[in-house]
Structure formats: C-alpha cells, structure tokens
Predict the 3D structure of the following.
Amino acid sequence: MTREPYTDSPVVTTTVRLLAPFVLTYGLFTLFHGTSSVGGGFQGGVVAAAMVVTVAFALGIRRTAAWLDRRVLAALVAAGPLVFGAVALAGVALDGAFLQLDVLPIPKATVYATEAIEVGIGATVAAVVVVLFVRIADGYEEPETSGDAVQGEVDDPIGGLGPATEVAVDD
C-alpha cells in the first residue's frame, strides 16, 4: 500500500496553530474543575489528546510523532497509577486508613488530594490516547533488516512510538 505524499494546507495549519493553546487551556480547565463541576481527569485528558491528534492531522502524523518524546509519554502513562498510589497510601503512612485524606497535614487535604489524582488520570489518559493514535494511524509494516543493521535493532519510522520489538523465529 502506497500513501500519497503529505501536503499541508496553510488554512488548516494556521487554524490549528491558533486554536491549539485555547483547546489545551480548555482541557486544563475541564481537568481542574472535576471536583466542583462537570469534568475531571478523564475528560480533560481526552481534550488535550484530541488537540495533539488535531495537530497530527494538520502537520502530519510522522512529523508530530517525531516531535513527541516517548520517555515523556511513558512517564505520563505511569503518572496516574503512581499518583493514585501515593495519595492512597499517604493516609496509611500518617496512621490513617487507605484513601483517608483528612489526615494529611495540609488545609483542604481532600480537595488537593483529589485534584492530584485528577491530574494523574488526565496525564495517563492523554498519553494513552496519543500513543494509540500514533501507533494505529501510521500503520504497521514489518521492519526491513539491512546488512549493516545491528542485530536486534529495529528501524522505527515514527520516532519511538512504533513497533519496538523484533520477533525471533527459530528454524
């Protein structure tokens, strides 16, 4: 399957570049107002990820994937469970129960601890959606091995977000 070369539209790229900061701000607004109104970490994370997907459509999937750092995405994926675990166990560490937030030595501990969990959820959801989009949108092709390639090394055409493992076949 051959793909047409990517050609960008000045109207689309300019519009996306103008809208991106506002949409990301709305995603943060949605994320931080989850404790007091409609919204939360999941919704805010999806809005932020949708903006990254929109940027990929406007500027090119491979170009956007090359711009994304896979270490940062991996850290963001792990952020939600780690933050939840830290907040949940903080009560136990302070002689309280699991998820007992009122024992934390800060004012409005329940609100701030819930916000921390929401931020972790938002980061995880955004990163997972972005990684899934990039992996699915770019397609999958078997990596070609060349004579000068190091054994076990895989050419990754989408900047660290594509297939990163090689399957060994026993004869």
